[in-house]
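Marked as duplicate of an earlier ticket. Keeping the data here for the record.
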Amino acid sequence: MNVFPRLFLPVVAAALVLGACSHNPPPKERPMEISFPLGTIRETAHRGSDDLLSAGLGLAGLRATPAAFADPAAPNPVELRRRAIQTAWLGIADLGALGGFGTVYGAVPNVPGREFQAFAHALGATQPHRVLAQIPDSFDTKTRCLIVTASSGSRGIYGSIAFAGAWGLPKGCAVAYTDKGAGSGYFDTASNTGVALDGTRAERGKTELEFAPSGYASDAGVAVKHAHSTDNPEAHWGAHVMQAAQFGLAMLDRAFPDAAPFTPHNTKIIAVGLSNGGGAVLQAAGIDDAGWLAGVVAVEPNVYAPHVDAKKKDYSVKTEVKGNNARALYDYASEAALLAPCALLDAHFSDVVATLAKLPGNTIASWSTRCATLHSAGVIKAGDAKAQSAEALARMRADGWEDGALATAASITAYDMWRAFGVTYASTYTRSGVGSMPCGFRFDAIGADRKPRAATPAERAAWWSDASGIPPGNGVFVSESAPGQGPDPSWKGISCLRELWTGKSDAATRLHESVQATQVRLPRKDLPIFLVHGAEDGLIPAMFTSDAYVAWLRANKQDASYWRVPHAQHFDAFLAWPGFGDRYVPMLPYAYAALDRVYAHAIEGKPLVAGEAPAAAPRGPGALEAKHIALP
């Protein structure tokens, strides 16, 4: 059962909520009342050489090497914001010379306007989530469009700017963001410092902080909100999105008092998100009983749908109801961490592995030791290396993995990303605080001797703008109190993480309870939903997520528009890698196109007709052209 109440809005907003549900508008609407704890609101203007969408960098500046801070140990809020926006763009979009951004699709115009930012609290949470409203000067007070979004992955507040901001701001929509209880506001236990509202570092107790854990030792390393909040924020992602929407409406009241009030009745709210952000907006759809949302666009969503029994078929709906293969992220990620290094040595993946082996920093040379470890542990039975990889591959296929997803999972495996995700999610699902992460893991700055050390002032100062929200990266690494030994040293920690899913310990029970609390609820039947997923997504495989969600909807006599895009994977940013962009098309064009269609339906009243998924085709060694994306 989801621990977050389905109706989270208090009585003070009841009249507004009832007005949003009614077919007839209330005689007089009141300004939006914030119905949740909210900290100080910081308002900033961004015009001229600065703007909302790129902090004045434009497309050329976003592509360039990030400028150094004038004082690396103490960058100012303007520098930090500019770097954070650039980092968010580079983490999501393919801005490479061959990628087609700015020519085939997408643009980065200068969008002047204002930002409003604060720390908000979901009901029962010990730590805040950051909310941000970007309101362009060109906001259309007649059309009244609000895009509400959640950051992808565990990224900071600008994590969805390349999707939601790039589409909404130039169109005259306001955009409201939430970091959904994750983000890059790292807390350093050695210096007792965290991140203030303006992005600068501050000591605990001196000002409001994005994340301030409790009960930590001064040598507990680096604390990360997604891992160490003890709140299981994923169970509240839907509420985070709805609070961001409410914040956005309230800030529109502040920005345009003569046109106020802005309410769900007179302002169209479209929820959009990518990856974890996509999961968040689908969670929001499931708790939107009041009818605030006019549409939802979820791209590559990390969504955990209830299971549908394949034996139960309902022929009263147009599409035959089939069983689904719904799996939680922790389940398939911990399985991949265990088996994928061996399975991907099968000859079936030799081409993609050969391409990845040319890139620096990969771990492919060590994969053969995993096959031997799996055999020694009795996980696989085959005795020779070739048969071992074949058996590991057969195991993954039997558990629902498709070969296309496995091929792109090779990139995630090559850079040990499964372990990074597992460490963070194991901590959040077991509600472990800093210093008590499962399996002996912790986050530290690491010295040349491979031992934990104190982070430097310059490293700490850049965490908020540069970090992705999940270590390793930006001087913070995953370390272990008792590292594994032998030829496969990561086995000890990875097998422990997997045991949290397959075992029956108290920690495993807590983890399963937390994962169950993230399962989505059915949206209201009249809510337009558009899903877009890469058919070869190896991080959030479509067969476990979007496919399963749509099958679950159909089993409940509901449906959604859905594009399962061929030759598309999860990370557009990876397409700039040598040899990688040759094989896959970017996802952002389809995300923008889906939003175009939902906007036309919600705002202009046009029918929402998705049609078949576009017949995308890889670009090969040349530049991307419109024919490769094949949008109608």
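See parent ticket for discussion. The radius of gyration is 23 Å.
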